[in-house]
Amino acid sequence: MPTAEVNGIEVAYERTGEGPRLLFLGGSGSSLRESALLRAPFAEHFDVLAHDQRGQGATSVPPGPYSMADYAADALALLDHVGWDTCRLVGISFGGMVAQEVAVTAPDRIERMALLCTSPGGAGGASYPLHELADLDAEARAATYPTLLDTRFTPGWLADHEGDRGLLEVMAARTGRERSAEARRGEAEQLEARRHHDVWDRLPDVTCPTLVASGRHDGIAPPANGEAIAGRIPGAELRTYEGGHAFFVQDRAAFPDVVAFLAGDGARGG
Fold first, then answer.
1. Residue 156 class from Cβ within 10 Å (0-12 exposed, 13-18 middle, 19+ buried)?
2. How far is it between the farthest Cα atoms of the chain?
3. Is the pTM here over 0.85, yes or no?
4. Whole-angstrom Cα distance, residue 187 to residue 57?
5. What angle do the packed helices 94-105 and 68-82 form, to 10 degrees?
6. Which one of 77, 206, 208, 220 is least enclosed by Cβ atoms within 10 Å?
């Protein structure tokens, strides 16, 4: 796995696929290994650049605190490292927060953008405070998490929906996995940066064609937050899918729609 020295840290990254250049930004606590399946549909259509964000995976865990501006600066420095002056951008959950920060910081570098299951912060609404979930004991976390992932995921619902039980088991396993003390510190720093995310007042600075996609039953980034983002970014398109925070897995129309949007015309050259 290649690494790049950016902003005083070593950032692990991967490039997969061929086609238009696409920067992929994953969610809280997500490493390149864990996001591989999510990136695969994009790599069928794009030259996908993804990295372990600071504090995650094989990337350095520098001293905190981290800010959302730090995450955006790392992403932009990685673009410089691989020689991309512009690219398309997809951000999922926490990655959508970083994507918003990137797009308002350097609007001239983003050709098209898709924001999935994310929030703007501030007056536009924040996502569920995952730092509070992380502080719960295992039993309380297990009781709370299902309806955050999808507000329908009550015990009765899950008893009748085998596929949703499987999805919950996969997602919950990520939150309960064993981690080193250093990895836990990196995750805590990321959650603290997430807690302070607020790009609301700057969203009108986004200039690229933007798709905002939400899950109808998302308990982490409610659809109202996606509506707020779309209403704030000039010309943004809003789509709501059947599912929760993982709607892109639950609704078969989601991935093809996002890929088609990102592959569309209207991108600036460079």
1. exposed
2. 53
3. yes
4. 10
5. 70
6. 77
